[in-house]
């Protein structure tokens, strides 16, 4: 019965361990016993202390292995928690050996709090880094596309600024992350990943500027391609609308999108006829959503017709 009560007390103590973030900030309870154990007799106190010491040794073995395998930096927060945990563990063991069970329990709980922080931090890091291999694989395609964009801009005499340097720095940053992963240095991998992502963010912003410059440098070709494709798309949409209506369908939404697109098309056509390609490109860019919705509707139409819908998919106004 005493053993059962002691185990229940231990369970309450473990469940009552404070949140990880508060451990280093507030340890004013140092040396005092939690409410759950107050009033416990000496025999039960000794049993509880013994169980806590046993758990501490297990936690010590687990976290020591993690610290060693993960190559945790000695100036990191995790290592600080490890040092604190070890200090309290050793004090708790000494108290237990000297028969001071209250001290063994109090210091043991403090040690367990720090061990908990370590285990939680490692679990979080592993979860965050689990998707990393996929992200790195995707970066290979990203880097190739970035290189092509920069090279194309340079060939057309466009100032690319520090884009080449940013590209190389971003590549090197992700290579460092992979090296950290191979060395199983989770904490450093997490830190280096944050650096790599920040560099990628800066590169993204630079690439947006370069692509915009490229677009204006090739405004005439982009505008003419838009007009050719748009003309064919409008003719196709008009034929579908007539077909749907003749079959008793309802193409109101498609007609609405066609009308909106035609308005954009006519503005672009007018500016293009005047040779104002940059202005025409501005119209295209300002109405990306309208253009996107129109072509999205066309894609839906083609899919329906391919399935043999014959307009049936438009009875609800599509």
Summarize the structure.
Helices cover 78% and strands 0% of the residues. It has 318 residues and is mainly α. It has three domains: 2-128, no CATH class; 132-217, no CATH class; 219-314, no CATH class.
Q: In words, what does this structure look like?
A:
The protein is mainly α and 318 residues long. The chain folds into 3 domains: 2-128, no CATH class; 132-217, no CATH class; 219-314, no CATH class. The chain is built from 11 helices and no strands. The longest helix is centred in the middle third of the chain and has 32 residues, at 186-217. The protein is elongated and about 95 Å long.
How are the secondary structure elements laid out?
Elements: H1 2-15, H2 42-69, H3 77-97, H4 101-129, H5 132-155, H6 163-182, H7 186-217, H8 219-246, H9 252-273, H10 277-286, H11 288-306
Helix pairs in contact: 1-2, 2-3, 2-4, 3-4, 4-7, 5-6, 5-7, 6-7, 8-9, 8-10, 9-10, 9-11
Coiled coil: 186-220
Keywords: Coiled coil
